[in-house]
Structure formats: C-alpha cells, structure tokens
Amino acid sequence: YKYPDLPISRCRQELTSLIEYNSVVIVRGATGSGKSTQLPQYILDYYTEHSTYCNIVVTQPRKIGASSIAKWISRERSWSLGGLVGYQVGLEKVVTKDTRLVYMTTGVLLQKIVGAKSLTEFTHIFIDEVHERTDEMDFLLLVVRKLLRTNSRFVKVILMSATINCKEFSDYFAVPVRNKLYPAYVFEVEGKPHAIEEYYLNDLKHLSAPLFEEPMITKEMYEVAVSLIQLFDELDLKEISLICCRRLQVYALHSTITLEEQSNVFLTPVPGYRKIILSTNIAESSVTVPDVKYVIDFCLTRTLVCDEDTNYQSLRLNWASKTSCNQRRGRAGRVSKGYCYRLVYKDFWTNFIPENAIPEMLRCPLGSTVLKAKLLNMGEPRALLATALTPPSIEDIERTVLQLKEVGALAISADAEEENPHDGELTFLGRVLAQLPVDQQIGKLIVLGHVFGCLEECLIIAAALSSKNFFVMPFRQHLDGYRNKVYFSGNRKSDCIALVDAFKVTAPFKMLLEQIRLPEGKFSKRKAVAELLEELKNRIQKFNMYVDSQPPVMDREYIYKQRFILQVVMTGAFYPNYFTFGQCDEEVAVRELDGNDPKTTVVLKNIPPYGFLYYKQLQSLFRQCGQVKSISYEQSKAYVTFSRNPTERFKTLPAVSMALKMSHLRVPLELHVHSPEKIEEKMEGRMVPTLRSTRYYNNKSSAEISKEIGHFWGYRIDEKNTAVLKGLTAEINQLDLMPLSIRPHPDLVCLAPFSDLQNNRYYRAQILSVPGDSAEVFFVDYGNRSRVALDELRKIPSHLQELPFQVTVVLGISCLKNKCALEFKLCKMRPSAKSLVCGEQWSYEASQRFASLVNRCALTVKVYSLVHSVLHVDVYRYSGIKEVVNIRDILVNEGYAELAEESCESNVGIAISFSMLDLLIVLLHGPFNPYELKLCSMTRISRFRCVAIERDSIHSVLVSDAPEDPFQQMLVAASLSVNANGSTMLLRETSLMPRIPGLPALLSMLFAPVIELRVDKHGRSYTGVLCGLGWHRSLGTPVLPEHDMELAFDVQFDVNDIVEINILRTAINKLVCDGPNGSVHLGQERTAQLQEDARQKLLGPKPREVISPKWHAKPYEWNQVRLLSGAVASADLL
C-alpha cells in the first residue's frame, strides 16, 4: 500500500519508534496533515509486519468524524468495513472479532473503560482532538492517566490535535521516575497540505459591515456572507474561463439530523452547482470534505452553561475561541489552496476573541461525570475530580452530589448529622442511571416505569426525548405543525404520551403519520428512536427489567388507568419540575370578553372605525383556525366566536387555541381598510361618525331563521339557475341514497324529502333542530323549511356537499357560493304602531298578509345594499298583466308597516360597494383570551421567574376550562432551561396532570426525598407540606434550598393519608433496591406481583374535602414541627 503524500508521511519511522518506546506521546500537526487517518495505520502496519498482536482504538468527538474516517480507510485500503477497520458510534457498531483498528466516539470509549476499570483491552489508545475540552474528554483523560499509573502500565496513549497546548498536556501526563516527573514526549508535524489565506472584515473593500459588541448575527452580516458567496462565483469563473450561472446546492450539518443526512455533505455536487454546507461546530474536527475551498466563519458558538442562580442549563451564544476558529479554518485547504473569511475585524480578533474555550467541566452539569466516578470506586468524587486537567469547583461538585441525592441516584443518610454533601452511597437507581446513555431524570423515568408496570411506554418516551425533535415542525409552517400535533395528541394532555402514541402507530395510520410530518417522509427519526429503544432494553436487562412480552387485554378503562399511571410516573421522574397556574380575575375576564364564552371566543384589538365593514377579511384571517360563527364589535375591539361542535360543549375549542397560537407565533394580522374620513365623505354628511363608537353584531349562523316581516329566502329563476337546480335535483334522486351513518344533530348537512304536487323528492338540506323523532330542516337551495322524520333523512355524498354552483354577485361581492338560496330583507320599512300593539314587533295578521304576498310566486328585487350576506332589497310582484306593485308600499298602505331609514351599516355598505376607495393597512393586536393561563414554578428559586413553554408543545397555549375550581392543577416538565439573563424559564415536553383535588400535594409528598408537614396553630390538622432535601441539623440550614417547595393544602389530609403514602413508597422501594433480596434477584412472578401491588395502591385515590388554603407563617423554613398536646406528628417517610 502506498501512503498518500501528506506532511506526516515524512515522519513515519520516527513517530512509530517514539510510540513504541514511550508511554504517552503528544502529536501536534496542522489540520489535514494526516494525524487521524495515517498515524493509526502506521502502527497497525508496523505490528502486522512484526507479526505482533495489536488492538488500536482512535477516539473522535463526533459520530460523523469516527464513521467517515473508518469508511475512508476501508475504501483506500480495499478492506471490508468491519474487517481490519471498523467503527462504533452510539448504537451503531461495525466491528468484528477480527477488527484491529476501531474508530469510536469519546463517550463510547469512556463507557468501556469505566465498566472494565482497565485499559488493557487495547494496546494503543489514540485520543484525537484533545483540545476540545468536553466533560467526557476531560474525564477520559483523567481515567486514562489514573489507570496508566496502576493496572495498565503497558498501554500506549497518543494525544493528537492541531491546536493543542502542548505544555499543559505534557505536564499533565508527566511520568514519575525516581521522585522526579518527566513530561510526556511532544512531537511536532511540520508542514501543511496546502496554504490557507485568511481575511477579515477590514479586507472586504466593497462590502459594508456594521460594528458589533454582543455575540450575534445581524441581518447585515448574513448579507455579507451571501455577497461573499457571489464573489466566489466570480473568482472561480475567472480561473476556469467559463461563463455560466452557478446554482446552489445547500446541505445542513448539525447534530440533530441523522448520520445518513450528515453524510450527504460528502457527495459530489451536480455540475454547474456550488455546494454550500451550513454547519455548526460539528465540522470543526476531523471532517474532511475534499472539495471545500472557502470557509466563512462568523466566529460564534453556542455553549451550554449552568445558570449561576438556578443551576438550570442555558444555551448561550458566545464568541468562539481562536482554537475553535483555527479548527474551522482547517476545513479548507485539504486538497487545494483554501480561503478563510472571518466576519470580524482584525483588531477585534486579536484583542477580544479568547485563545481557548472554557472547559465544559467548569460550566456544565456534572451529573453523569460524578456517577461514572462513583462506578470507578476510586474514592470520593471530590478527590477524583480534583485530579482533572482543570478541576471543577468544590461548590459545583457539592451541588451535583445533592442533585443526585434528590434524583435518588445517591442515598440520603438516615442521620442528618452525618450527611456528607460531597459524597453518597450509590443506589440501585444510581447504578442503572450510570449505565444508560440518557439524562438522569429520563433514566429515572425508565426505572419508575418498571415499578408501575408501564416500562415499554417509558422506554419509548426516553428514546424519543433523547433523540430530540421526534415531531418535526415544517419550516415556516409552525401553525400547521402545531395543529397536527394537537390533533394527534387528542385528549391526552401530554407531549410525552403523544410521543408514545406516535411511535406505536402502524400501517393503518401511515397517512396520519405523514400529516404530522415525521422526518424524511420515511420515518428516519422513528428508526433512530427504535434503535435507541432496543439499546435501552438490552442495557436494563442486566438489572432484571424486561418489557412484558404478553401485554394485558386493553379495554377502555385499562387504557385510561394506564395513562394516569404514566402521568404519575412522569411526575416522579421529573421532580421537582413542577408548575401550577396563576388564578385569573374572573370579574375582569368577564368584562374583557363582554359576556362572550371564553371557550369559543378570542379578542382582537386595534380594530379600525367601521370595523363591521371588514367582516369578510376578519373571517378569512382565522380560516386556518376554525369556522367563524360570529364577530361582534365594541369600539376598537372585535370578539371572534368560533362554531362549536356538539361534542365539544364543555371544553375550550381547538380553534381558540389555534387563534392564540397565531398570536404566540406573531403571525401578522392585517386589514385592508378605508380611511374613516373618506367613508364619511362618501356618505355625504349623513350621521355616520356615531358609527365609530357604537356596538354592532354580525351573525352568520343560518341555524336561526328569522320569521319577522320582510325577512325571507328565495332563489333566482333565470334560465341558467333553473337549469342548475333541475340538474341537481335529478342527480340526487337518481342515486341509491343511504341512511345517515351518524346521529342527526343541528348544522348537519344531509338530504331530506319534500313533497310538492304529489312528487316526493330529496333535496339538499341543513338540520336546524331535532325535537324528538323528527328534525326541522332548511332546504339550502330553495330557502323553505319543513319537518321530516329522522328515518327519512339520507346521507349526502361528498361531491354533492361540496359541489360549486353559480356565484350570485351583488354589488361586486360574492355570496353563498354553495347555496342557490338567497336571504332577503325589505329595506326602508319598520313595524307600524298597529303591528306593535297587536303583536311582538309584527302582528299575526301582518305576518299572514306578508306571507300571502311573497309565498310561491315570482318576485323581482332591486338591491339596495348587502349587510352580513343579507340582501336589503325593494321587492316587486306582478299584480296584473303589466302592473308591478312594491310589497313595501302595500304593507304601508294597509297599515301594517311604515317607512323608515336604513341602518348606518346598510347605508355605508351601499356607499362603499359602489366606489373604489383607497385602501390602508391596519395591523391588529392579538388574538387574546383573558382566561389564558400563566404558569408559576413551585420551587423556591424559580417562583418569581417568568415561565414559558416551548412553542412546539401542545401546552404552549393553555386556556382555563374551569376557572371556578378552587383547587390547584399541576403541570410537569421533562426538562427546562433558562434564558441568557436567567429571568425566564423554558419548559419542554410537558404533561398536564388531571384536575383532581389535592393531586399536586399528594404527588409532591409521594416523590419528594424529604417532607415536613405543616400543622395549624393548635396542632390538630395538617395545613401544608414543605418538600425538599431536608436541613442540616448542625448548620441549621436547608440542604438544597433552591429546590424546596412549600405547598398549602387545598383539600383535607389526615394521618391515614400519610400512612398510605408511606406504604406506597415502601412498595416502590421493594422494586428498586440492592442486596441479596434486591430487584436483580427477584423472579418474574414476584416482580409482577409487586408491580400490581404498587399500581393498585396508586389507583386508589379517595375523594377529599376541599378547604381554603392556609399558608404557613414561616414558609420554606424547616424544623417547625413541635409536638403539642393532642398534636398530630409528622410521619417519617422512606
């Protein structure tokens, strides 16, 4: 095999010799010099030539680096992948017993070493990109260093990087010889494969770029990057002397897409296309894309840090270090000359960009690191981590240990005097968590799922949460994505349970899966979740946890019970991520909604004058939310009410949530309006200005058909319309009509019979009401009504229900596109005094007279205006051969009516209709709903912080269904983070607990590590509870005060309740304990018996009396219980 001509090839013999005779060698060389690909091959070939055994492992910080290098070597050497060379990344393992050179991620090697407590499985360990100071990298270096000096002295360790601080690492791996430390050997690889030219903003003559101080990408900087790409085309065209129009082929490269998608960046672009890779810092290390020529670097990075106050994680945008930027520069210049454009000024680069990034061990959570330290059993975590390259602070280690005790991974001492804040005994739960490639709380979810008999569902949730973004929101279509996710989640009220149901969907629901837009259309994310699910199943089997191969028969009641148990399990796993809702002022809310139903109505503000003119526009703004039933106006407000399905009578409509979601997404709601002055000018001095502040109501529901005089329905009898109606009637009555498949209800469109001249035919109709065994129907194509027996109604075929008819155009406005019947109202008429005296508005005699004038005869109408789809008209009928009579005049002359002016709406409607006025754009505010819920954290540290739910959650919009309930309802979050300044908490993957009185307090007492019950001043009843890690008796301070939760009971609890809670905690402990009688040694039958026992105890909540909450006089203070005469003592909890 002929090695490629790279800088490192000139040092092959020297490097091989150095590695052979030194325990630790540090190799520094430019990117592209061949460290990652060539040096391990040199060692493999050397040992092969000498017929000596070797087993070489090379670590890479990222999956794509490990897999791509292994594939490249197998291709270059014509070896089968998985033969001599292979790779192992995450769950993907392409390794056999014959493999001698394996590339793997840092985390995989660390897991192997921690499990074995030795390095002797390998002869050579190459740790690449050691400049990346992740917590895994630093802990790996710590463990390797420790084992090299104990039980693995003959293993060779090679550290490699292009930007390593050689002295720091050389001193860290110094070898003690005769009471003296000798630094590790450092070898510098000279030369670079190709030159790389660097440019800064100062060098861009024709591009303007703003000054900046905060780490951010402005719109102007994006424009600079785009302009550079265009300039690259011009430069390349000059070089190759071709005239062509370059098109762009864009690839994304980041950690949340699958490995297959990441590998697309290595594809050769189509001729005539420029390949553009939009990458995070995943491309900083060991990813060689041969055709990269230009690098545009914003010099930014997102880093995960722990908030100083809350210790919650926060992802912040910071300036990247010079080390990282130099690594990015190395992506170019691999096979030809490269160019790097840094979008900062040269002096800013020199003076403000840091040399090195802050190691993760100093800024990130240490939970998994401390658990691995406990598995190694090499002393206290504090002592072991003190030997790290950059040790974390004692305070960070102490806080991590306390949080692990809160989770249950480390045991809490029974004697508070002996509680060690820096260490604790590893529990059964801690051993499980240390073996799982998931977050600690997600691992606890799996264990509790085993306890309560819902292990499979919890494994699915764990795999989906760890894989991230199981539901993919379409780009720029967040409203559609949210609607689909809400639709899919149904009434489950949980993002996590929605994940379970989505994963379990099979072939019959494939179309539904496509609607919710799972990635790649072929469910590639589902595949990744399935693979992790199998990995988790395999890992927990060593702890005697198995998914039931024969699931029980699931009737409707079982499904609901299982759902409740799953919600309780999530509450236990995600403790203390608990939140309650702030109480809304109902009196204020009722006033804000002006008496409208909060479950069907949203409020818009900044409505322009004469808002009723823009009814159609307002209606169209909410078309994608649901069917608008009505819009009412009051000054600058509009109340949009949606139509309710009869089955949704007592809950907030999805349309309301969708409308509020539009506000959260800041969807601009624009109206094209007329100038008020021009409207008034067109009205020629009429008293229209009073219209600006008057309340109006527009109702579009056809379910209420008015019976007043002058209000009637009709249809056109011109030749074209008559032909359409005849054709429609003939088609309907030639079909084989089927009975209704659903129960008849108001608003249902169907086919109904109507008898006329001994002909009984079916016509399109809408049900108005269902009194008894008959229905009152409205024939939508003719405008008449009739009562029909329910068994005579027929199902309407979909093509007839949606069949478009001629569009009746009045004054340039289209109305009633799917109905031939039109609604009319006589204009300029009102009841006379005689009618008002003899009846309600209109007398019976007047009604009969009007009916005799208009029923079953041809009428001619002259349109005056159109108001809310009702035609205000003059109506004429033929009295003789040529005489035309005005119906209004007849009613006036006979004393049933008198002349009147039309309403302002009608007058304005006709004025606007006949003229084209200049349009203005008004931006509306909202939608709002005063019953929308605000969240409050239950923990001490966060109770005054703002709380927001991620926008993809089904709970990102929450409207109170029962504001009258006096008791609390709880929401649980799987994870949370804070914004950059720590003022707002962001919740992810939330679950809304059932509205059961006392449930928040009950679950908090069940899953809190330590509780102290509050009693009234007489000591006779419980009033609340303080939950947390307890307090230091010697110091007199709380152990973990930031996570303490103070709750006031809103239902009655007594001693029996506390005893039952203790019994349930004992039942849980029996399934998660170590020792000879522990969980690992339980038989399958005994395990099932204990699981059923825990389930039954959980499913036995009793009704409790609702009481007024009484807050403790000294909230968040421990050791307040004093045993008085007749007092109730706090029960000890396990």
UniProtKB/TrEMBL annotation:
<dbReference type="Pfam" id="PF00271">
    <property type="entry name" value="Helicase_C"/>
</dbReference>
<dbReference type="InterPro" id="IPR011545">
    <property type="entry name" value="DEAD/DEAH_box_helicase_dom"/>
</dbReference>
<dbReference type="InterPro" id="IPR047384">
    <property type="entry name" value="Tudor_TDRD9"/>
</dbReference>
<keyword id="KW-0347">Helicase</keyword>
<dbReference type="GO" id="GO:0005524">
    <property type="term" value="F:ATP binding"/>
</dbReference>
<comment type="subunit">
    <text>Interacts with piRNA-associated proteins PIWIL1 and PIWIL4.</text>
</comment>
<comment type="similarity">
    <text>Belongs to the DEAD box helicase family. DEAH subfamily.</text>
</comment>
<dbReference type="InterPro" id="IPR035437">
    <property type="entry name" value="SNase_OB-fold_sf"/>
</dbReference>
<dbReference type="GO" id="GO:0005737">
    <property type="term" value="C:cytoplasm"/>
</dbReference>
<feature type="domain" description="Helicase ATP-binding">
    <location>
        <begin position="16"/>
        <end position="182"/>
    </location>
</feature>
<dbReference type="GO" id="GO:0030154">
    <property type="term" value="P:cell differentiation"/>
</dbReference>
<dbReference type="GO" id="GO:0031047">
    <property type="term" value="P:regulatory ncRNA-mediated gene silencing"/>
</dbReference>
<dbReference type="GO" id="GO:0003723">
    <property type="term" value="F:RNA binding"/>
</dbReference>
<keyword id="KW-0217">Developmental protein</keyword>
<dbReference type="InterPro" id="IPR007502">
    <property type="entry name" value="Helicase-assoc_dom"/>
</dbReference>
<dbReference type="Pfam" id="PF00270">
    <property type="entry name" value="DEAD"/>
</dbReference>
<keyword id="KW-0469">Meiosis</keyword>
<dbReference type="GO" id="GO:0051321">
    <property type="term" value="P:meiotic cell cycle"/>
</dbReference>
<dbReference type="GO" id="GO:0016787">
    <property type="term" value="F:hydrolase activity"/>
</dbReference>
<keyword id="KW-0539">Nucleus</keyword>
<keyword id="KW-0221">Differentiation</keyword>
<protein>
    <recommendedName>
        <fullName>ATP-dependent RNA helicase TDRD9</fullName>
        <ecNumber>3.6.4.13</ecNumber>
    </recommendedName>
</protein>
<keyword id="KW-0943">RNA-mediated gene silencing</keyword>
<dbReference type="InterPro" id="IPR002999">
    <property type="entry name" value="Tudor"/>
</dbReference>
<dbReference type="InterPro" id="IPR001650">
    <property type="entry name" value="Helicase_C-like"/>
</dbReference>
<keyword id="KW-0963">Cytoplasm</keyword>
<feature type="domain" description="Tudor">
    <location>
        <begin position="743"/>
        <end position="803"/>
    </location>
</feature>
<dbReference type="Pfam" id="PF00567">
    <property type="entry name" value="TUDOR"/>
</dbReference>
<keyword id="KW-0067">ATP-binding</keyword>
<dbReference type="InterPro" id="IPR027417">
    <property type="entry name" value="P-loop_NTPase"/>
</dbReference>
<dbReference type="GO" id="GO:0003724">
    <property type="term" value="F:RNA helicase activity"/>
</dbReference>
<dbReference type="Pfam" id="PF21010">
    <property type="entry name" value="HA2_C"/>
</dbReference>
<dbReference type="GO" id="GO:0007283">
    <property type="term" value="P:spermatogenesis"/>
</dbReference>
<dbReference type="InterPro" id="IPR014001">
    <property type="entry name" value="Helicase_ATP-bd"/>
</dbReference>
<keyword id="KW-0547">Nucleotide-binding</keyword>
<dbReference type="GO" id="GO:0005634">
    <property type="term" value="C:nucleus"/>
</dbReference>
<feature type="domain" description="Helicase C-terminal">
    <location>
        <begin position="195"/>
        <end position="377"/>
    </location>
</feature>
<keyword id="KW-0378">Hydrolase</keyword>
<keyword id="KW-0744">Spermatogenesis</keyword>
